[in-house]
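User: Batch of two.

Assistant: Item 1 of 2:
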Amino acid sequence: MKSIFDSVSRQCSQTVTNSYSTSFSVATKLLAPSIRQDVYNIYGFVRFADEIVDTFHDYDKEKLFNDFEVEMYKAIEDKISLNPILNAFQETVHKYNIPAELYEAFINSMRMDLHKSTYLTTEEYEKYIYGSA
């Protein structure tokens, strides 16, 4: 009966996509039906990681993020997760043999955002390095 759980997991990813981004969910409907669900699965994953970093200010975001990352690796290794978003994501990772370096690069970029809240524009950076001209 894992098929029911997998179906619910996919529905959760689609719900996340539709709830968080009206424009992206509309654009996703333009994709071929054969890949649409996988886009939802990836979007759900990246959205939840982003939520941890950008939204959960009253919580230990670093701990939440670390737990999410560990659960992600476990889901990919075990080919199942009780977290429906991670369950759907691991399904897509395995379906397309997505290389670890791709989702690891994403995780690393999100981790950097845990500690850095502002970034310099190119112009600001050049002024910082070279001084005002």
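Item 2 of 2:
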Amino acid sequence: MSVLEVSHITKTFGSKHVLSDVNLTFEEGKIYGLLGRNGAGKSTLLSIMTNRIFAGEGEVKIDSENVDDNDAKLGLMYLMSEVNLFADGWKLKQIIKDSESFYGSFNHELADRLVTEFGLDINQKFGKLSTGYNSIFKLILALCLPVK
């Protein structure tokens, strides 16, 4: 059973203290939510946990191994944000193909099943997706990427 530990995370941007001595433990098989007002540091914490930005102090570990520059442990996490990394004119099927090239593999069987279950047309352009389908598509990508 994997455990993700966040220990004594502190982060400042200039003179603004965003996170101060944050300690959390996430256990496998459970669902957690981060709640807080805008600017509370939720996205900053998630970015630190996935090594997108670095904490001023503290550490993040999975199964007692630090995630900093640890591809094996970082490969166990996928952070999806509201920021779109795909051009509006790209077709969904091309994004899927490119994802496989970038990550080395892709579970096409699962993707096909999820696309069908959600009624997603992969011949449409990314920029034409509603907000809900945009999220669904990005979640499908995340679920179909390899776990390292």
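The radius of gyration is 17 Å.
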